[in-house]
Amino acid sequence: MVWYTARRLHEALAGRALTRSDFRVPRLATADLTGDVVTETASRGKHLLTRTTSGLTVHTHLRMDGSWRVRPAAEQVKDSHRIRLVLANDDWQAVGYQLGVVELIRTSEEPQLTGHLGPDLLGPDWDCAEAVRRLSAEPGRPIGEALLDQRNLAGIGNLKRDFQARFVTEPSPGTDYSLELTPLESQGSLEKLFLLVDRKHFYILQARIQDPMGNVTQISFSKIQFDNKLSDSLFTFTPPKGVEVFHMPGSTPAGGPEK
User: Fold this and answer.
1) Cβ distance 31 to 23 under 8 Å?
2) Closest alpha carbon to 197 in 182, 212, 183, 208
3) Residue 184 Cα distances to 96, 159, 164, 211, angstroms
4) Which of 10, 39, 147, 232 has the fewest C-beta atoms lying within 10 Å of its C-beta?
């Protein structure tokens, strides 16, 4: 949910100058980012980080009830006491409702917020070996408690608080863990989440996401290996001649290979 929200915000805001910023929290009532250019929005665990070229980061956290909605800039959005933040450009407007945290910090200060977190399951810096090392540091600790500790793995959330969790099949020796997670509160596009977890190393082998319409997105992981020293050339793509290329923030400059 948080990763998807970050991606949606990034698609709407990154690379564009803000034409409006409206902070509706008392301590930031006078803050104005109009004219600043958003470089990216990234997620770190359950934190959302929207960075700008001026070296500032808008830090938001959904908590239990928060959400971001992205609408065309020309669309009239009904005013609401639940709105905490609006960021808009010429094309899109992002409206944050009931956000649990709204802060404006220097980008250089982000480690003070997220430096304690373990590897992010959906982050570009995901390090499975490090996650296993952290989880294995306390072998006698219950698996559910260890997985919920953000210092081990970032982004899973508090299953006991946010979800009703149950084993799809009762655990038995030699079999992987099969979990069904149902949100206790509405999560918008998430109706249920099914996880298949490797019993020995706690790798996530499969994730199935079911939305309220019954649509299911399934992601499976197989032949999991670590530190294979893969060449960067395996992830390099050179577009054919005549193809128009749009460069996202942080991508290779024009004329270079696409990744």
Assistant:
1) yes
2) 208
3) 21, 10, 6, 14
4) 232
Supply angle C-alpha 236, 218, 157, rounded to 5. Answer: 95
Q: With respect to residue 21, please indicate whether it lies within any of the assigned structural domains.
A: yes
179 strand-pairing partners: 167, 195
In a domain, 93, yes or no: yes
Question: What's the pLDDT tens digit per position in 230-243?
Answer: 787 887 878 888 88
**36 contacts 55 by C-beta, under 8 angstroms:** no
Could you give the CA distance from residue 219 to residue 54 in angstroms, rounded to a whole number?
A: 37
In a domain, 61, yes or no: yes
Task: In whole angstroms, give the CA distance from residue 241 to residue 92.
Answer: 31
Instruction: Summarize pLDDT for 94-142 with one digit per residue, the tens.
Output: 999 989 899 999 999 998 888 788 778 777 778 888 888 888 888 888 8
HSE toward the beta carbon, residue 182, CA cutoff 13 A: 5
Confidence (pTM):
0.59
- Is residue 250 domain-resident? no
